[in-house]
Amino acid sequence: MRSAIKNGILINEEDATLPVTSRSMQYAYSVYEALKLKNGEFVHLEEHYERLKESARGINIELKYSFDDIKRYLNMLKEKDGLYNETFRILLVGKENSLFITHNETKSYPDSYYSEGVDVTTYHGERFLPNYKTSNLLLSYLALEDAENKGAFEALLINRDGYVTEGTRSNFYALKGNKLYTAPDKDVLLGVTRIGVIEAAKSMNLEIAYDAIKAEDLFSFDSLFISSTSMKAMPIRSVDGMPVKRVMNTMVLRFSDYVGKWE
Prior knowledge:
The structure is a single chain. By secondary structure, the protein is of the alpha+beta class. It is 29% helix and 31% strand. The chain is built from seven helices and 16 strands. It has helices at 23-26, 45-58, 67-81, 112-115, 138-149, 192-203, 249-262; strands at 3-6, 9-12, 30-38, 41-42, 86-93, 98-104, 118-124, 154-158, 163-167, 171-176, 179-181, 207-209, 213-214, 223-228, 232-239, 242-243. Strands 7, 8, 9, 10, 11, 12, 13, 14, 15 and 16 form a ten-stranded mixed beta sheet that branches.
């Protein structure tokens, strides 16, 4: 049986619950983080903690747990369940600061997703408070469900002005010539892996343009890709069933390798 943490105490995972009458639960008034345990070490734990704190601040929750508290709880759970490579989810609920930490097997993807790319769809919608990792995930759920029903791997979100902002669970990028394009910081979740992608672009001497791309212009770029904690950097093969250019997919794989080492 898996274990979990609730408010700093080790419990059975099945007991990591909240009552349905909880106002915070009913309003999805919570924030979360997902981070990897890789070869027994937590990956970029401080960055994940700072983003959790920033997300909490953004919706008027004061995070009452220190970095050392969170690190201690994660290690308690790691040791209790004998974990070495795993993904942990930290959930902070409401002003009552109910804290839950659970874990699942880290996702892995076929090599073909990187060598050939993945299919994505587009979905019109904008996440509420995009800079904060809140539990208000209905838009992402609906968009991803729509993508999966169409046989695609991910959905790209299109805002009211027709620009691609991000994926439901990923950041989005486009390459053309010597330039990397990604949406402005204010419009997206600032993924921790995105930091690695930006650092990789700088190491490759690419110009970085924080400009969102019109959905209708996606097919004019040399290559498109997405990134996340589990995906690293993954090339896109098609959008809404239409093939995109893959001129610079070798470079996308360099991004993926860089992020893997950066972890």
